[in-house]
Specification:
Blueprint (H helix, E strand, L loop, with lengths): L2 H13 L2 H8 L3 H15 L4 E3 L4 E3 L1 H24 L7 E7 L1 H6 L1 H11 L3 E7 L2 H9 L5 E5 L7 E9 L1 E5 L9 E2 L1 H4 L4 E3 L5 H12 L9 E3 L3 H9 L4 E5 H9 L4 E2 L1 E2 L6 E8 L6 H36 L1
Parallel strand pairs: 3-4, 3-5, 8-13, 9-10, 9-11
Antiparallel strand pairs: 1-2, 5-14, 6-14, 7-11, 7-12
Helix pairs in contact: 1-2, 1-3, 1-4, 2-3, 6-12
Length: 316
């Protein structure tokens, strides 16, 4: 079976248009029609219902689409697995969030440039909701965000999960004891952008504790630098990923609060649209998964060593 014909079928199904698929594939509408006709003959089923304005999948076509996407993806992975990928070239847009920037984005950029020197990266840093919209609009090719993105054609790979901590400036005097959520909520609570996963987590905690979120001063920002600066200055409390605030905790600029309400981990996903013939997003997503896993292991080893050193000091 001709892989190119399957790719053509996938694009017609996604774009709901033979002419749009022809433009996407840099060919003619007649060529697209011939490929689909040949594929329908080979499979013995009608793949599309056609009218004057658009095309739509038949029930058989919908079943074939899932198999075709899998076959094309496996074909690309096989070709890349045995070939020389250093020849890959082009420009790829990555959208990500501050947490990834703080954690391991530099390592990813360095490895991409070392492995694929002819690939240029465009980076956009914003909140997860905005980056997800950019991905679906085709303005970024790969999203590294607090996901997943549950949209047709999007593939999600979970990369890592970061524990989130309640933190505040030591001068507020909230550390070193068990703190009720009501006491914490008396201060301004700095959170990520409105509607984001971390922001929703804070709202759910307040609601479960019987607090009215509308009466709590929740201050939203998509800038971690802004949030951490204001919290370090004693302007309020925040819930932030541990990987972001680790160095500030070590320097004593922030303190961890023992709040009687735990926040779910922040799960980071790589998200990209399955695009026949465009392997770069999938390749770099897998690279990100490996780098994120290595960073998680290194952080765990460092935390275990610090705990062991602390215990040894107490024993002495």
């Amino acid at each position: 079976m001709n892989i190119r014909f399957l790719e053509t079928f996938i694009w017609v199904a996604r774009l709901r248009s033979f002419s749009s698929a022809a433009d996407k594939l840099c060919t003619t509408q007649a060529a697209v029609s011939n490929r689909i006709a040949t594929l329908e003959k080979d499979l013995g089923v009608r793949l599309f219902e056609r009218d004057l304005r658009s095309v739509s999948l038949t029930p058989a076509g919908a079943r074939v689409l899932a198999q075709a996407e899998m076959i094309v993806r496996m074909s690309n992975e096989l070709r890349l697995g045995v070939g020389d990928t250093h020849h890959l070239r082009g420009r790829m847009a990555i959208g990500t969030i501050d947490t990834v920037v703080y954690a391991w984005l530099t390592r990813l950029v360095e490895e991409v440039k070392a492995t694929y020197p002819d690939v240029d990266l465009d980076l956009t840093v914003d909140n997860s909701l905005t980056v997800a919209r950019l991905l679906q609009d085709g303005q970024v090719d790969l999203a590294l965000i607090a996901g997943p993105v549950l949209a047709p054609g999007c593939r999600n790979i979970e990369l890592c999960a970061y524990d989130c901590l309640w933190v505040a400036a030591p001068r507020l005097g909230l550390q070193g004891r068990r703190v009720a959520l009501e006491e914490v909520a008396a201060y301004p609570v700095f959170a990520f952008s409105r509607g984001s996963q971390p922001h929703q987590n804070v709202l759910h905690l307040l609601e479960r504790a019987g607090l009215d979120p509308h009466l709590v001063r929740i201050l939203n920002s998509n800038s971690l630098a802004t949030i951490t600066r204001l919290v370090r200055d004693g302007m309020g409390v925040a819930v932030l990923p541990e990987t972001v605030v680790r160095e500030m905790l070590e320097r004593g600029e922030l303190a961890v609060l023992d709040v009687a309400a735990t926040v779910p981990p922040l799960k980071i996903h790589a998200v990209f649209r399955e695009d026949p013939g465009a392997p770069l997003p999938a390749i770099i997503a897998q690279m990100a998964a490996r780098i994120a896993a290595a960073k998680t292991e290194a952080d765990k080893a460092e935390a275990d060593k610090a705990e062991a050193d602390h215990a040894a000091v107490h024993i002495k």
